[in-house]
Amino acid sequence: MLKGLILGSFLFLSSLYAGSINIAVAANVSYAIDELKKEFKKLYPDTDVRVTLGSSGKLTAQIKNGAPYQLFMAANMMYPEALYGDGIAVTRPLVYAQGGLAMLSDSKKDFSKGIDIVTDSSIEKIAIANPDTAPYGKATLEALKNSNLLDRVEKKFVYAESISQTVSYTVTAADMGFIAKSSLYSPKMSQYKKGIHWSEVDSKLYTPINQGIVLLKNGQKNSEVAAFFTFMLSPKAKQILEEFGYIVP
């Protein structure tokens, strides 16, 4: 119903006001956003979608401080719900995808051990996203705590500011990292094989990562922003997200 209202209110103006839109996107979506933009461009060839990537917490802080974003695609529901509560977002947050957590190593590992592999003596550094600002980092702590492993391995942590930076740290400076499963579906990550270099973290160990999208006050009268919002909830966008390892509603 919400999609229909937005379309009915704004979409008919799209051909009259072609231009650029500014969206804030959680770093874990960086691997899928180019494909999403490409598909949207087929529908709205005159619209330039400008993307700012970052951790959901930092993007939220920027939005609260007046950053000119018009749409926010967060890595969980907490941040867009807070913006809606503050009146900065003008639509209730909707789930556009559900993310998954994975363990990655640049070298071959015995992932048959499951998450217990983090206690191996060969793993001296573990990259994780900052749990204070990145939902995937928070999920990592939750999974390790629920496995009774957190106290044993916390000293190994190397903190990154976002989940994309965590991937970078994992393959350059750490022995293993906890990353968004979606990053492994990027063509740039094709050399890493499931069961050899990476494995999913049991989803029962952490709260489901429901990723939320919300229309911001800066974009409430912009038909192209409304069109992208609607596109992100469309079957085609969901298909793309599924191809990048997400679960979609």
Commentary on this structure:
The two termini are 15 Å apart. Helix 1 (2-10) runs antiparallel to helix 8 (223-232). This protein is of the alpha/beta class. 33% of the residues lie in helices and 20% in strands. The model is unreliable at 2-17 (pLDDT under 50). Strands 2-1-3-10-4 form a five-stranded mixed β-sheet, with helices on both faces. The chain has two domains: 2-98 and 209-243, D-Maltodextrin-Binding Protein, domain 2 (3-Layer(aba) Sandwich); 100-205, D-Maltodextrin-Binding Protein, domain 2 (3-Layer(aba) Sandwich).
Shape: globular
What is the terminal separation in angstroms? 15 Å
CATH topology-level name of the largest domain = D-Maltodextrin-Binding Protein, domain 2
Structural domain tally: 2
DSSP strand tally: 10
CATH class wording of the largest domain: Alpha Beta
Low-confidence stretches: 2-17
Structural class label: alpha/beta
N-to-C SSE string, H for helix and E for strand: HEHEHEHEEEHHEHEEEHH
The neighbouring-strand order within the major sheet is 2-1-3-10-4
Taking the sheet with the most strands, its summary is:
5 strands, mixed
| CATH architecture label of the largest domain | 3-Layer(aba) Sandwich
What is the H level of CATH, i.e. the homologous superfamily of the largest domain?
Periplasmic binding protein-like II
Strand composition percent: 15-25%
